[in-house]
Design a protein that fits this description.
By secondary structure, this protein is of the alpha+beta class. It folds into two domains: 101 residues, 3-Layer(aba) Sandwich (Glutaredoxin); 94 residues, Glutathione S-transferase Yfyf (Class Pi), Chain A, domain 2, CATH 1.20.1050. It contains eight helices and four strands, in the order βαβββααααααα. A four-stranded mixed β-sheet has the order 2-1-3-4. It starts with a strand and ends with a helix. The structure holds glutathione. Glutathione binds next to loops.
């Protein structure tokens, strides 16, 4: 059984949402770990196998280590028969891969720069800003409910997660707001809340005295 290192209300939560949507949460061993938060609270958990103490982190049945949310989410989708992505080799797979890597390669840096109040020519030249990200999203969503068309995919889960955490950063574009709401509505939010509460309890109980 693959092992997933998870910390509640973090970037690994979207992997849990994905597993729930695929009905495969029981097929993965989830290990709850603490992480250091941006405000300095928390701690690096010695249980966490991630080389930098981050989450998510996945160890496959073959013992291979996978880091980065996009890689983990694509791996799990493929492992369980691709219920949440266009089949490999078919139309739209390229578009799917583009959004998956656009998330970590463009959206996250642009969003972090915005949150940090960073306006540097090297950052803008390399990644652009959330203004361009919003324009790309708006054009990508034109005439369709989800990024790839009528079906929700892992690309929607990872791209929308940025705005589910920090709704104040959602671009003020009706089509983007409606899409984030649609992705949220497709998720099992009740089960997710219950799972995160349980994870928090387990972590609290295992904290060093
Ligand atoms: N690019 C990575 C980022 C992972 C990441 O930074 N995760 C945060 C949780 S939201 C973390 O583990 N922080 C703990 C730390 O930086 O020590 C991914 O998407 O998987």
């Amino acid at each position: 059984m693959p092992k997933l290192y998870h910390s509640p209300q973090s970037r690994s939560s979207r992997v849990i949402s994905q597993l729930m949507l695929m009905g495969k949460l029981d097929a993965v061993g989830v290990i709850f770990v603490e992480i250091v938060k941006n405000d300095g609270s928390g701690r690096r958990d010695p249980k966490n196998a991630h080389p930098e103490g981050k989450v998510p982190f996945l160890i496959t049945d073959a013992g291979e280590e996978i880091r980065e949310s996009a890689a983990i989410m694509m791996y799990l989708d493929e492992l369980f028969g691709q219920p949440l992505s266009p089949r490999i080799g078919t139309a739209k797979r390229g578009e799917y891969l583009s959004w998956m890597t656009y998330y970590g390669g463009v959206l996250e840096p642009a969003l972090v720069a915005l949150c940090a109040g960073l306006d540097h020519p090297a950052m803008v030249g390399t990644f652009r800003t959330m203004v361009e990200v919003a324009a790309q999203l708006e054009s990508g969503l034109k005439g369709k409910p989800f990024l790839l068309g009528t079906e929700l995919t892992v690309a929607d889960l990872i791209m929308a997660s940025a705005f589910q955490w920090a709704p104040q950063n959602t671009p003020d574009v009706p089509a983007i707001k409606a899409w984030v709401d649609r992705v949220t509505a497709a998720m099992d939010n009740g089960a997710m809340e219950e799972f995160e509460t349980k994870a928090q309890d387990v972590i609290k109980r295992s904290e060093p005295a």
